[in-house]
Specification:
This protein is an alpha+beta fold and 522 residues long. 29% of the residues lie in helices and 30% in strands. Strands 3, 4, 5, 6, 10 and 11 form a six-stranded mixed β-sheet that branches. The chain has a five-stranded mixed β-sheet with strand order 17-12-13-14-18, sandwiched between helices. Strand 3 and strand 4 (28-34) form a beta hairpin. The chain is globular. The protein starts with a strand and ends in a 6-residue tail after the last helix. It binds adenosine monophosphate. Adenosine monophosphate binds at residues 25-28, 195-196, 224-225, 262, 265-266, 269, 330-332, 334-335, 357.
Length: 522
């Protein structure tokens, strides 16, 4: 549990639980707690910063996380892991680090571990948290995020969708939590969340302290990084054109150029032009770039977010007239083109009142606070209703075509928790097991869906006749995690859900020991 400790005269510790929320971002992460008055505040890290780069540097036997690791991208790029969040759900991070393969959740765990240790210096032991995930994360990625928390020595009270967390922080800031406040009117809020690596859009209905997602959509591979990449490629192509060599071929030059371009992008959010310098093999190219040019070269990326935004509004059954606020969150919404596009689409000025860097962690801290007080027997101070971002299905064989196909059981944007029961029948007498393949996605073809895993029901009761009905219930929990229940004639049966690309409990325990007891950790 997360405690603030204070010494009494008799040296006993009076430990008061503290609520902590973590925004585990693709490029930056933030940790926040509730203060004595129940207000969310961001905790600074050991370097004194509110945001921590989500970067890990494997410096020989030492592991460095955060700002120093981000600097190492320019000098030791092959030993640096960044954007591991984009690889969540894969078995391994996309490059070898120190000659070793790391699961992406272990890299995420190292980032969480740094946040945990730094926070502990300020507030005492930290071990119960709420961690945020993109609304568009599928089940496997959600599980991997919870596992990352475990490996970092944390107890993950819950995971929460980033746009929902931002909406909660917004509701708190607007005074909706205040019993005397003017928060009871129903408002439709569209949350547009463009971070470093992911894009999410969620339509929420807020009625006082009731937060209800109506529809959600997004892209787990679209964010500020893609805007940076356009600038990197633009400069590199200019370098090739004038000098004849590609500066991206050297990982450290590529890392340096990436940082230069990210800086230039930030400058272009406040100024109309800037310069980027690229040095490689004793040659140098200096390029002036205007905001207009930058916007032209990234227009298609912005258009993708506009398309998804329109679709989500439609899925929520609303028009722009029904939307009371367009809420911006995520660092990339500082690009003026984002506000301009949304103003044009919606006909209203976007709301930038919540801090794009902090809102998500603040919402998570508010949820953590609520969950801790609920554990203490208090009534919840607010309520969240989410929807699932991907349809849940089973792989079946179409009897007409004999082809494998995805049979959707819980369609996307269903209010959670949601359950669906399917009756399977044993095929032969004395059958001993049933095997089901579970997928998430909208396509009929299982290959275009993300494989969640396989559920085996084993052993079935002995001597069942052929065609015995077996009830299988798939339940999406409020946080988007899957639970499976199996029964025959009302009696529950043992089953095992084996997820693709997830670590075994033994591996998780071993990573947890490695990460939390590192001698090099600060
Ligand atoms: P987040 O994941 O919400 O922390 O967002 C991080 C992303 O926001 C990174 O891609 C940053 O480059 C981007 N970002 C932060 N500040 C600015 C800014 N002033 N202009 C443009 N992009 C920014």
């Amino acid at each position: 549990m997360l405690f603030r400790s204070s010494k009494t005269g008799s040296q006993t510790m009076n430990r008061t639980p503290i609520a902590v929320g973590i925004d585990l971002g693709t490029t930056y992460s933030v940790i926040a707690r509730l203060d004595n008055l129940g207000r969310p505040v961001t905790l600074v890290n050991a370097e004194g910063d509110k945001i921590t780069p989500s970067v890990v540097f494997f410096d020989g036997a030492n592991i460095v996380v955060g700002k120093e690791a981000a600097k190492a991208l320019a000098t030791d790029a092959p030993a640096v892991a960044d954007c591991a969040k984009r690889d969540m759900g894969q078995r391994f991070y996309h490059k070898l680090l120190g000659g070793r393969q790391f699961p992406p959740e272990a890299i995420q765990a190292l980032i969480l571990d740094k946040l945990r240790r730094d926070a502990a210096r300020m507030v005492g032991s930290v071990d119960q948290v709420v961690v945020t995930v993109p609304a568009y994360f599928d089940e496997v990625r959600r599980k991997a995020t919870q596992d990352a928390g475990f490996m970092a020595g944390l107890k993950v009270l819950d995971i929460i969708n980033e746009p929902t967390a931002a909406a909660i922080a917004f509701g708190f800031q607007e005074g909706f939590f205040d019993p005397q406040g003017a928060g009871s009117a129903k408002r439709n809020v569209l949350v547009y969340d463009l971070g470093g690596g992911t894009f999410d859009v969620t339509v929420m209905q807020i009625e006082g302290t009731h937060f209800r997602a109506l529809a959600t959509d997004g892209d787990v591979r679209l964010g500020g990084q893609d805007w940076d990449q356009r600038l990197v490629d633009y400069v590199a192509e200019e370098f090739i054109r004038t000098i004849g060599i590609d500066p991206r071929e050297d990982p450290n030059t590529d890392g340096r150029l990436r940082r230069e371009c990210e800086d230039a992008k930030r400058t272009l959010s406040t100024r109309l032009k800037t310069t980027i310098v690229c040095d490689y093999k004793g040659q140098s190219v200096k390029l002036e770039i205007t905001r207009q040019k930058f916007q032209e070269m990234t227009q298609d990326l912005l258009d993708r977010t506009a398309f998804t935004t329109r679709q989500t509004l439609q899925a929520a059954g609303l028009t722009w007239q029904d939307v009371d606020r367009v809420l911006l969150t995520g660092g990339s919404t500082r690009m003026p083109a984002v506000s301009e596009m949304l103003r044009e689409l919606s006909g209203k000025p976007p709301d930038t009142s919540v801090s794009p860097d902090e809102a998500v962690s603040h919402g998570a801290a508010l949820l953590a606070g609520m969950l801790l007080s609920k554990q203490g027997g208090k009534r919840p101070t607010f309520e969240i209703k989410n929807v699932n971002s991907h349809s849940l299905g089973l792989v079946g064989v179409d009897p007409k075509t004999d082809r494998r196909r995805n049979v959707v059981m819980i369609p996307r944007n269903t209010v959670l928790p949601a359950a669906h029961k399917k009756v399977f029948r044993t095929q032969k007498p004395k059958q001993s097991s049933i095997l089901m393949q579970i997928v998430e996605g909208e396509s009929m073809s299982p290959d275009d869906c993300s494989q969640i895993g396989k559920c085996t029901v084993y052993p079935l009761p002995k001597n069942l006749p052929a065609r015995t009905p077996i009830d299988v219930t798939f339940r999406y929990e409020e946080n988007g995690r899957l639970a499976v229940m199996v029964s025959v004639a009302g009696k529950s049966l043992k089953h095992e859900l084996v997820r693709d690309n997830t670590l075994t409990q033994e591996q998780l325990d071993s990573w947890r020991t490695f990460i939390t007891s590192r001698p090099d950790a600060p």
